[in-house]
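User: Hello! I'm new to structural biology and keep hearing that structure can be predicted from sequence alone. Could you demonstrate with Ferredoxin? Please show me the input and the output so I can see what each looks like.

Assistant: Of course. The first part below is the input, the amino acid sequence of Ferredoxin. The second part is the output, the predicted structure written as tokens.
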Amino acid sequence: MSSSRYHLLTVSKLVNETSDARSVIFEVPPSLRQKFAFKAGQFLTFRIPKNGEHLLRCYSLASTPDEPMLKVTVKRVANGVVSTWAVNDLKVGDQVEVMQPAGIFIPKSVSGDLLLCAGGSGITPIFSILQTALKQGSGNIRLIYANRDQDSVIFKNELITLTEQYPKRLEVIHLLDSVSGIPSNHLLARLAQPFASTLNFEGAFICGPAPFMDSMEYALESINLSADKIYVERFISLPNEKIAGGQATDVPNNRIETVTQHSNGASDTLIDAVATIELDGQTHNIDWSKQDTLLEAAEKAGLSLPHSCREGMCASCMCEVKEGQVQLRANEVLSERDLKQSLTLSCQAMPHSSKVHICYT
Ligand code: FES
């Protein structure tokens, strides 16, 4: 009873984007193309063997869904075991275990106007959304892109090419700390305001380091942009990449997440349950103790469910509750709207009714 979401992909190309950021391009064999189909804004999880154990790390996709390959861009993190390996040691021809794309930092539509806001390597998912919207949509895009200095701008040349290709639709505003200091909330609000009030406005997408994201969110709130138009993908840089005792306790480093902060605390109304789980065209019935999350209960039953962070932060484990009730121990990624649509996180879901039917789509 197992379902592996990890597949070996071969590195077909490596591109040094800056002195500490490198794009890793995977060739996807035809047999895996369907499994690795993705939406702009999603991420891949790497499973890297280390000292007889495995480290899981998530990296946003920078390529677009219509390209035959997958590209992630990795920035070296101080003392980061996996990021240092990816930037310094990974070679063309190496094989990496990669999980199918996941994540919900995805525009519902790319037909309207978009405000894209990136800080540093937060450009990665933003770049995928940007290129996809330019190719598939017809709206205007303003990209606010903050960096330390010129040399740390990832995709500098590609952005120049795109602005030449779409002069009427794309405007890129670079903010460099080395030139004008850290951008103030007031400046960010001024840059966002005229754009965010267009009739055709689809939404604002933000990704980058925490201080940039906080400033950007504050700026957008200060111009009264409705919360349901703001999408946030938060990078979490842990001080140390954890070396875990196998899959069960791995925590990803370099990411992630949220759309809207939301959390349901566990309560004393949890009950032992039977879970019916639909996964990869098969149905499994398992015992689900009220002490365990759905992910833990499935692992005890020998069933492998998709997951990455195990912290309620990445949505890799997202599934739908078709019948019954669950309670989330923590949730930093699903919005109220997602929860109303019966979406849940298996890594945080606790049983709240005696029968629960779960479906992975
Ligand atoms: S595994 Fe990341 S939210 Fe569940």
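User: So the tokens describe the shape?

Assistant: Right, they're a compact way of writing down the 3D structure. Reading them back into a model, for example: The chain has three domains: 6-103, 113-233, 270-359.
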